[in-house]
Specification:
alpha+beta, eight-stranded mixed beta sheet, 12 strands, Alpha-Beta Plaits, four-stranded antiparallel beta sheet, binds alpha-D-galactopyranose, Ribosomal Protein S5, domain 2
Length: about 400
């Protein structure tokens, strides 16, 4: 479904349920992660982009304390009041919205005074690693802050969504997904620095495009693998802060040269985990210099390096993603390919010559199908505008 169709369906369903059009509708896109994997919570750097698919949130005020939230694809409705906002164990999709509402009011949603009736619908494939959950949080925070007349800047809104993930959805994510959805710009990459939370946009030009290849390998970040990687990075940072004669708060502060010299004091697994975000930070900085000079193929080569680092050191890839990257590498019109997002399944992000898109998806689909029996989904992605009120 195209965005306009999603919007029309949502508004139609809302009107049918409540007898009037929603007072406010907000939209927030998903994201692709282009370079810089698991660097955000290490206070490092990332290149990402908002995509041309997203989620719409429609809302009107209610007259009392009651709130209602409907997932328009399932037509399931969760009901709660301002004083019963809490993480849910059933219909867990509501946690992204209720968590966001909760933190928009600093954990005291009763301060909102009156409740609301909301409904959401999106077209981001679920479990693909395209951050459908962050998109839902960002359209929620935009719509509800408008409804209540609460002014928040984009970074604060992104942090509200992140807090909902941590406390209501149970995923200790960084700020990448929410920030990319907020700061996306058409035709551009977002370059983020998660130490200072600064977000610049860099134009990509028409010579290259991104292709997302969604494997059918399960991708779930709440099952502990993501959290264990994050913990290993934090343990490593503590170790380096003890052995390096400088301030180390996060792995952002450790260089590759320092890792080479000092990693022997870490256990093997922690050392392997640590080298990934350290290398990724360096690759993002190199990538920025290459983009400035228009050296897109060299930028793509860094994406291949990034995937090798995931595969061999961070071990957040899987056989299906490796197959996609290995197949892509043999196609001259693919300049770079890597897993995108948390990993452990989900999608790969390819930097491609858009004129060869059909050829590329045919070859990758054929190889993948021969190995796994089912087909991956290949789609060209247009870097797009970030979250906004409609
Ligand atoms: C997931 C998380 C992000 C980030 C990426 C990996 O998408 O939600 O915060 O850590 O994984 O770079």
């Amino acid at each position: 479904m195209q965005n306009q169709e999603v919007y029309d369906e949502l508004v139609g369903k809302f009107e049918k349920m409540y007898g009037a059009k929603p007072q406010i509708v907000a939209y927030a896109p998903g994201r692709i992660e282009v370079l810089g994997n698991h660097t955000d919570y290490n206070e490092g750097y990332v290149f990402s982009a908002a995509i041309d698919k997203g989620t719409f949130f429609a809302v009107s005020p209610s007259d009392d304390e009651n709130c209602e939230l409907t997932a328009a694809d399932l037509m399931e409705t969760a009901k709660f009041t301002l004083s019963t906002v809490a993480p849910a164990k059933e219909m867990t999709w509501q946690n992204y919205v209720t968590g966001t509402f909760n933190w928009l009011f600093d954990g005291e949603p009763a301060k909102a005074g009156k409740g609301w009736k909301g409904m959401f619908l999106g077209n981001i494939p679920l479990g693909a690693g395209l951050s459908s959950s962050a998109a839902l949080e960002m359209c929620t925070v935009l719509a509800l802050s408008k409804l209540y007349g609460v002014e928040k800047d984009k970074t604060t809104m992104a942090k509200i969504g992140q807090k909902a993930e941590h406390t209501f959805a149970g995923c200790p994510c960084g700020l990448l997904d929410q920030a990319s959805s907020m700061y996306g710009k058409a035709g551009s990459l977002v370059k983020s620095d998660f130490r200072y939370n600064t977000f610049e946009t860099v134009e990509m030009g028409p010579k290259v495009a991104f292709m997302m290849v969604k494997s059918n390998a399960k991708h779930a970040l709440v099952d502990g693998a993501y959290a264990s990687r994050r913990k290993a990075c934090e343990d490593a940072a503590k170790y380096f802060s003890g052995v390096l004669r400088k301030k180390v708060a996060h792995l952002r502060d450790v260089t590759m040269a320092e890792w080479v010299l000092y990693h022997g004091g870490l256990d093997d697994t922690t050392a392997r985990r640590a080298v990934h975000p350290i290398g990724e930070d360096e690759r993002v900085l190199q990538g920025a210099a290459l983009l400035e000079k228009g050296e897109l193929e060299a930028f793509g080569a860094l994406m291949y390096d990034s995937h090798e680092s995931s595969r061999n050191w961070f071990e957040n890839s899987c056989e299906e993603l490796d197959t996609i990257v290995d197949t892509a590498k043999a196609i001259p019109e693919v300049y770079g390919a890597r897993l995108s997002g948390g990993g452990f399944g989900g999608s790969c992000c390819l930097l491609v010559n858009p004129e060869a898109a059909d050829k590329i998806s045919t070859i990758i689909t054929k190889e993948y199908k021969a190995k796994y029996g089912d087909e991956p989904t290949c789609s060209l992605i247009k870097p797009s505008e970030g979250a906004h009120i409609i």
